[in-house]
Amino acid sequence: MSVKPMPVATSISQPFWQALNEGELRIQQCEDCRGFVFYPRNHCTHCMSDKLSWKPVSGEATLYTYTLTRVPTLPELADEMPQALAVVELKEGVRVNTTLTGLDESEIRVGMKLKPVFHKVDASGNTLLRFTAEHKALDIIPYNNPFESLNRNAKGQIQVPISNLAAMSALANNEFTDWSEAITVDQALINAFADLSGDNYWIHTDPDKAAKDSPFGTTIAHGSLVQVLQSRMQFALPFEVVGFKAMVNYGSNRLRFPAPVPAGSQIHARAKVKAVDATPKGMQLTLEVNIHVVGQERPSVINDLVIFYR
Ligand SMILES: [Zn+2]
């Protein structure tokens, strides 16, 4: 179980997805031959003209064909079984791959009249296009915010029970936390780490030689030093996982040092939940921690931390 895959809009298809978000179905029509085109493209499929414009359509459709999936096509879709994967034909003649919703298996018939259902799938209003029978009182499936009924702790973090799969799964998103406070990585700290680790390479510990010979013009911090300094930088996660017996730091799925940290730099950190997966070892949360020199766009450390809750 993890976050469901979402379509990625391209510059060509973006108007289609935008229209869905606005509760409208818009498809392309050729200005030369008036033919309708779907899926979104650069050229008319009837006459090859590149003069296509976006037109709102009613979504009146008939069921061209369908199949019921008894085995999830992806693990993330396990809670949607059986899925009614369908090809529907719009009144305008184009066919659309979709899923049927709000219908019992026994109600589905090839040739039946259908209408669109706008399924809001996240808090930012992203919408997928489903279809249901014309006579059903179903036009919109609202976003079901799995955090809505949950409590907050004294720090204001949403308390997400490990057993609440919908909420656990919804933790993964592309939003970073705010930046932590900044800390300074000075030569004394770098020297202390050199003593501790035994890594006395001049690029870290010899400012005079580094001024002459280093491509950075100064000494730089060890990547592993910057990585462990993460513990000194508190970024505020918007949630707290609760209701587990044990939490295990399982290490890192990916550790990269893309940019140097010159001695004397200020660094700060932020994080985002990259993935949440149910595994035989327990609930696995992958937290991507990024550490940057303040003001630098390129991170100095990318660390995908893996945490197990059970
Ligand atoms: Zn055309």
UniProtKB/TrEMBL annotation:
Q: What is this protein called?
A: OB-fold domain-containing protein
What Pfam families does UniProt report for this protein, alphabetically? Answer: MaoC_dehydratas, OB_ChsH2_C, zf-ChsH2
Q: Which InterPro entries does the record match to this protein?
A: ChsH2_C (IPR002878), ChsH2_Znr (IPR022002), HotDog_dom_sf (IPR029069), MaoC-like_dom (IPR002539), NA-bd_OB-fold (IPR012340), NodN-like (IPR039375), Thioester_dehydratase-like (IPR052513)
What region holds the ChsH2 C-terminal OB-fold domain?
54-119
Note the Gene3D superfamilies from the entry.
Answer: 6.10.30.10, Hotdog Thioesterase
Q: Outline the extent of the MaoC-like domain.
A: 180-278
Q: Which residues cross the membrane?
A: none
Residues in ChsH2 rubredoxin-like zinc ribbon domain copies: 17-52
